[in-house]
Amino acid sequence: MDLILLTVGPPLLILLYIIKSDRFTEPASAVIKIFFLGLILTIPAGYLNGRFVTLETAYLAGITEESLKYLAFIFFVTKLHEFDERMDAIVYGTLISLGFATLENYEYVYLMFPEVDSYYIAILRAYSAIPLHAMCGVIMGYHLGLYYFNEESKSNHLFLALLIPMLVHGTYNYLEQPLNLLFLIGVFIYARKLHREFVMYQKKSVI
Predict the structure, then answer these.
(1) 167 Cβ partners below 8 Å, 6+ apart?
(2) Backbone angles phi, psi at 197, to 5 degrees
(3) d(Cα 128, Cα 149) in Å, to the nearest integer?
(4) pTM given for the model
(5) Quick one: which of 93, 187, 78 has its CA closest to 140?
(6) Which of 77, 191, 197, 71 is nearest to 137 (CA)?
(7) What residues contact residue 80 under an 8 Å CB cut-off, 6+ apart?
(8) Where are the domains of the chain?
């Protein structure tokens, strides 16, 4: 029981925080639907990573996984009636990312490394890979939110929504400990700033 909580608890807690930070909470039906969409993405990601990614080229997973999340957002989230303001992009972007991370985490903890202590893997990923996926979702959502809901400045946001998460994810996979964890701290500061910007925008828009 403790192991399953360590496995699925961290992504769900981060997700709960992001959902609650939205002043106009998204309906449960949409939240569940997009979270499970993220879960399903692990199937094509597993296939692509199996064909193109090795231990020596782990950074390429940043391309395959973030591209799938991006396409899922474009083809599914943007069609939702509930997708109607900037913060929604961060909420749904994080839902996709953490849906993906939840099932991926289960596979890492329970299936992929039977020779390694499962508790060690779960704890390690709770402060590394899980936050990484969440922050990529925030960054992607931020730029897509500006692209879809800021008529004054669309500029390159559609492109940056894919490029930056790919670079962040790929760089994290390329670096070894403890450099990748130090890198994550910088990404956290950046993602928190972007999230805070949309939180403040919501507050101003209803004053």
Answers:
(1) 62
(2) -60, -45
(3) 31
(4) 0.95
(5) 93
(6) 191
(7) 30, 34, 92
(8) 2-205
DSSP state of 85: S
Asked if 97 and 73 count as a contact pair (C-beta separation under 8 A), the reply is: no
* pLDDT tens sequence across 42-88: 999 999 999 999 989 999 999 999 999 999 999 999 999 999 999 99
Say which DSSP state 113 is in: -
Asked whether residue 196 carries a pLDDT value surpassing 80, the answer given is: yes
Contact predicate 72/96, CB 8 Å: yes
Alpha-carbon distances of 154 from 13, 117, 147, 204, rounded to whole Å: 32, 47, 5, 21
Residue type (1 letter), 14: I
Q: Looking at this protein, which amino acid is placed at residue 108?
A: Y
Cα–Cα distance between 165 and 64 in angstroms, integer?
Answer: 11
